[in-house]
Design brief:
This protein is an alpha+beta fold and about 300 residues long. It has helices at about 20-30, 30-45, 60-70, 195-210, 240-250; strands spanning about 5-10, 50-55, 75-80, 115-120, 130, 165-170, 175-180, 225-230, 260, 270, 275, 280-290, 300-305.
């Protein structure tokens, strides 16, 4: 690696219908999506890749097996424990049942569905990494909570998938802090707008963290916000205020700008994924990878000089 660092994010949409199925498909070979994902990651050639839509397992088994298929496997990989599929114990969608995917802390048919992972050629700095995903939605300052069943606010976390800080060691001795998230889609609910409100607040979390308005130690520089806000500042469903605020924040650099997904007829192309380096970093380039048949989402990347 020279004096630049390529950071990338891609929602590979590798979710499977049950636990262990992703590992099965990776190990047995012949799965066309897995083959396409491997080719896309290899072509992207990022030094650090944040991968979304990959099912979580505590032993990193599925992620490690996927990494082993790469022509040049990453030397450091970690799966980020998500809130998806964790039972809430409440009938959150009000349909008379409390055991469905929409009743989980974060939408999921099983614990860990569609989590996030980091693949890096740089070592992780464990003592500078944090998991914010346990924060209750009700404890977010200014939270726009919908009506919930009695007691649900005491267990419902803000993060649908997760809010994490993963630090990697730069060659110059500093740590680069990756602030990652994958917000709820702002659709597939009713007039209570639970998903829309949560989507907004999941992104508003970062502005509050930068403002030191949350019960966490202050953020460190250099850092990069990277992930899927599931919100477009100009079109689509949802409240664009939180993502618009991040894009206009002078503490961040709004790289990219093109659509990152095409949801097809009825919704169309949207900008939902972002890499926003802090203002102290020198950005030398950014762009999108090629569209593939593995996912509706485009990989996005940013080149940083250090």
């Amino acid at each position: 690696m020279a004096d630049t660092l390529r950071l990338a994010f891609w929602n590979a949409e590798m979710n499977r219908a049950g636990p262990g199925l992703l590992l099965r498909d990776v190990l047995r070979g012949g799965d066309p999506q897995v083959a396409s994902v491997v080719q896309t990651i290899a072509t992207l050639d990022a030094d650090v890749l944040v991968l979304g839509g990959v099912d979580y397992d505590a032993g990193n088994a599925a992620l490690s097996a996927l990494n082993d298929l790469l022509p040049a496997p990453y030397t450091h990989v970690t799966a980020l424990r998500p809130n998806t599929g964790i039972p809430s114990g409440f009938d959150l969608d009000g349909n008379g049942r409390a055991d469905e995917a929409r009743d989980a802390i974060g939408y999921g048919r099983f614990p860990g569905e569609g989590g996030m992972a980091v693949l890096s050629r740089l070592p992780f700095v464990a003592d500078q990494s944090r998991d914010f995903s346990g924060l209750l939605w009700a404890d977010l300052p200014g939270a726009d909570l919908p009506a919930l069943p009695d007691g649900a606010a005491g267990v419902l976390r803000l993060s649908t998938t997760g809010h994490h800080e993963t630090a990697v060691a730069l060659p110059d001795g500093r740590a680069l802090h990756l602030l990652t998230w994958h917000a709820s889609t702002p659709a597939f609910d009713g007039p209570e707008d639970r998903n829309g409100r949560r989507n907004h607040d999941e992104t508003a979390f970062w502005t509050l963290l930068l403002d030191e308005a949350l019960p966490f130690a202050p953020h460190k520089v250099p850092f990069v916000l990277i992930g899927q806000a599931n919100a477009d500042p100009d079109k689509g469903d949802g409240n664009p205020a939180a993502i618009s605020a991040l894009l206009a924040d002078p503490r961040l650099q709004a790289t990219g700008g093109g659509d990152t997904v095409d949801y097809g007829p009825g919704i169309g192309p949207l900008r939902v994924a972002y890499i926003l380096p802090d203002a102290s970093l020198t950005v030398t380039g950014s762009g999108e990878g090629n569209r593939t048949d593995a996912s509706r989402h485009l990989p996005i990347w940013v080149q940083i000089a250090f």
